[in-house]
TrEMBL record:
PROSITE patterns hit by this protein: HTH_MARR_2
GO MF annotations, alphabetized: DNA-binding transcription factor activity
Organism: Maritimibacter alkaliphilus HTCC2654
Entry's transmembrane regions: none
Protein name, UniProt field: Transcriptional regulator, MarR family protein
């Protein structure tokens, strides 16, 4: 979720987060509550829609995500460092096919 929020600095509605992560709004609510309780995200009212909120990362949340993303990127580089260009292309094609199949099923 933090990755999705990081890519959308203006914020996302709960329904948008649910759609991006392919989970129910109920799954998102508890995570957003925890992120806001820890000062990593905040809820911002949407003008003209009293029921909707945008969820945004706070500066603290953005910094924590950046730290974790850097560690994750290093881990991925280490894991895939020995895979040649053809292997990466094959994995990418397989993931694209898997994503397409999943989207057709849902």
């Amino acid at each position: 979720m933090m990755s999705a929020l990081h890519r959308h600095p203006d914020g996302l509605k709960m329904s948008e987060i649910s759609r991006l992560l392919r989970v129910s709004n109920g799954n998102i609510t508890g995570i957003v509550d925890k992120l806001t309780d820890e000062g990593l995200a905040l809820r911002v009212s949407v003008a003209g829609d009293r029921r909707a909120n945008l969820i945004r990362l706070t500066p603290k949340g953005r910094a924590l995500f950046a730290d974790h993303a850097a560690v994750h990127e290093g881990w991925i580089d280490e894991l895939l460092g020995s895979v040649d260009a053809d292997g990466i292309a094959n994995m990418t094609a397989w993931l694209d096919e898997l994503t397409t199949h999943h989207e057709e099923e849902t």
